Amino acid sequence: MPAVVLVGAQWGDEGKGKATDLLGGEVDYVVRYQGGNNAGHTVVIGDQKYALHLLPTGVLSPDVVPVIGNGVVIDPGVLLSEIDGLQERGISSDRLLISASAHLIMPHHKALDKVTERYLGKARIGTTGRGIGPAYGDKIARMGIRVQDLLDPGILGKKIEIALHEKNQVLTKVYNRRGIDPAKVLDEYLGYAERLKPHIADTSLILNRALDQDKVVLLEGGQGNLLDIDHGTYPFVTSSSPTSGGACVGSGIPPTRLTRVIGILKAYTTRVGSGPFPTELTDEMGEWLRTTGGEYGVTTGRDRRCGWFDAIIARYATRINGVTDFFLTKLDVLSGLERIPVCVAYEVDGARYDEIPMTQTDFHHAKPIYEELPGWQEDITEAKTFDDLPKNAQNYVRTLEELSGAPISAIGVGPGRTQTLSLRPLI
Ligand code: GDP
Ligand code: IMO
Ligand code: MG
């Protein structure tokens, strides 16, 4: 009953989409368990490039059942246009299952996400503006509207009315925005209901039964460890739990059934939006990493902030998620550097830290302590095995492995499906 979790080990965009896709041939179900269309997962198959936001990456593998778990927040309009976009490219989403207990992103969530960010001014989080935070906020406040409500027009109408009774006050009186017409929203969402109905299912039951039958379930995280609402750089985080614990809550698969946790780890570090980032490079070296690594957001198109590899946060990801294997991505991007600094500790107000500081204030003041490793000049994008890598690249990988606290079992040397070196089977 292999249930494998795949989590981002840094601040998202580590290459989770590529890693999930790679495992597509070996798994039966791929489940998104949290987040929403704030995610942007890129998959490159041959000369085709796909950017997925809500659909689990498994949709691209013909024998996989893609599942949107109960922990996800769904913008139904976005989901349907993603399904239609894939259909135009000859990819069917007919097998898609959507948890009846997942929550819906409503128009007021998107309006509130944008306006609250504007009001925060310089203190803004830099959200994707997709309504993620307000949708999860309503879920926790027990004001949310769920996928199953789409099956009952009477209940749906009532819930929209109750929600907008309050949210329109906030939008108009606090933020001076226009109110939203409940009748229009009901009409729009009943339209979505028609198309989504055949996909709605008791996904926890289906997944646990599949595990009983020895099927392989891959739980695909969005975002990353440091964007986790509990374990990330709060408040500069997303509003869900991308960590491996969240995989259980967001899918209805119990912790006792998880067999492996794969951390996706970029060979350097990036982050989008505001918040602390000790190894960030704001000079031309950062620009070089951005250009060479193509570090531009898949969802919002924003420049990603770039910096050197940070072993403290990698080790933190191992601890929080119980990482059993790392998939190191984008090693090829570092080719051509003379020396490559790796952050091995922080200095905060004169004291050395070997772990993430307990408080955000200290983390904000953390200065990286670097060790420099020798670089390599060779292009490694054609490498097929670990032995094909230049000695210094091998040494870089081994050093990262030692510092991160879990074995590196796969290495990405390019965006393509085949540009991966396998050191150990992941499933
Ligand atoms: P995700 O959100 O974790 O799925 O990652 P994104 O798709 O947002 O960003 C990762 C980017 O790196 C995408 O453009 C991928 O195609 C690309 N990528 C993934 N693995 C590798 C790799 O090993 N080498 C290179 N050069 N690019 C990669
Ligand atoms: P994938 O799955 C990188 C960031 C946003 C912002 C913060 C909160 O592609 O790795 P939100 O809209 O979630 O309320 O924004 O989280 N963020 C991501 N950064 N990759 C992502 O997803 C992200 N999803 C959200 O930039 O800083
Ligand atoms: Mg991404």
Q: What would you say about this model in short?
A:
With 427 residues, this protein is α/β, with parallel strands linked by helices. The chain folds into 2 domains: 3-87 and 203-422, Adenylosuccinate Synthetase, Chain A, domain 3, CATH 3.90.170; 103-199, Adenylosuccinate Synthetase, subunit A, domain 2.
Describe the structure.
32% of the residues lie in helices and 21% in strands. The protein is of the alpha/beta class and 427 residues long. It folds into two domains: 3-87 and 203-422, Alpha-Beta Complex (Adenylosuccinate Synthetase, Chain A, domain 3), CATH 3.90.170; 103-199, Adenylosuccinate Synthetase, subunit A, domain 2 (Orthogonal Bundle), CATH 1.10.300.10. The strands form five sheets. A ten-stranded mixed β-sheet has the order 9-7-5-2-10-1-11-15-19-20, sandwiched between helices. Strands 14, 16, 17 and 18 form a four-stranded mixed β-sheet that branches. It has a two-stranded antiparallel ribbon with strand order 3-4. α5 (153-174) crosses α6 (182-196). The longest helix has 22 residues, at 153-174. The protein is globular and about 65 Å long. The model has no long low-confidence stretch (mean pLDDT 97). It binds guanosine-5'-diphosphate (GDP), 6-O-phosphoryl inosine monophosphate and magnesium ion. 6-O-phosphoryl inosine monophosphate (IMO) is lined by residues 8, 11-13, 38-41, 125-128, 130, 132-133, 222-224, 227, 238-239, 272-273. Guanosine-5'-diphosphate (GDP) binds at residues 8, 12-18, 40-42, 44, 294, 298, 329-330, 332-333, 412-415.
The order of strands across the largest sheet is 9-7-5-2-10-1-11-15-19-20
CATH topology-level name of the largest domain: Adenylosuccinate Synthetase, Chain A, domain 3
CATH hierarchy class name of the largest domain: Alpha Beta
Unreliable spans = none
The H-level CATH homologous superfamily of the largest domain, spelled out, is Adenylosuccinate Synthetase, subunit A, domain 3
- Mean of residue pLDDT values: 97
N-end to C-end Cα span:
11 Å
Helix count from the secondary structure assignment: 12
What small molecules accompany the polymer chains? Answer: guanosine-5'-diphosphate, 6-O-phosphoryl inosine monophosphate, magnesium ion
| Share in β-strands | 15-25%
Please, what is the oligomeric state?
A: single chain
The amount of helix comes to 25-40%
The gyration radius over C-alpha positions equals 22 Å
